[in-house]
Design brief:
Number of helices: 3
Region (Disordered): 99-132
Distance between the termini: 39 Å
InterPro entries: Ribosome_mat_SBDS_N_sf (IPR036786), SDO1/SBDS_N (IPR019783)
Number of strands: 5
Protein name: Ribosome maturation protein SDO1/SBDS N-terminal domain-containing protein
Domain Ribosome maturation protein SDO1/SBDS N-terminal: 14-102
Helix content: 10-25%
Structural class: alpha+beta
Order of helices and strands: EEHEEHHE
Largest sheet: 3 strands, antiparallel
Strand content: 15-25%
Radius of gyration: 20 Å
Strand order of the largest sheet: 2-1-5
Amino acid sequence: MATNTAIIWSPEASQEQFIVYIDDAAEYEQWKQQPEGGKDIALSRFVGTFSVFKTATGVGHTGTLGEVSKQELQNTLFGGDKNKHVEDAIVLILTEGKPHKGDLSHSFKLTKNPGRGAGEVKGIGAQQGPHR
């Protein structure tokens, strides 16, 4: 079972939720315990992808995810500050966000009709045995 940890943060007075995925929850917890300005654990040790995501609707953390543009991050999270980058947004989300663990192994399954065999896709014809 593939489990991932997402750090989810929402700005005040907004329903948008911004998401950063981490690969190593233990390293993240150690990083978070260090004082501001003195963090000596590199983000690359536990951050999965240096990107910030949100759902297509922007509300909630489930659904189709898309990467947030640099301009949107600057405008939404930093009041239009052009000197802020994706890494700054990631640090903000990691610092103020909340962890959410989930099983993402289902993301790659093809479900034709879950009412018939919980999503199993059965082959037909030549796919079910030797050719005759």
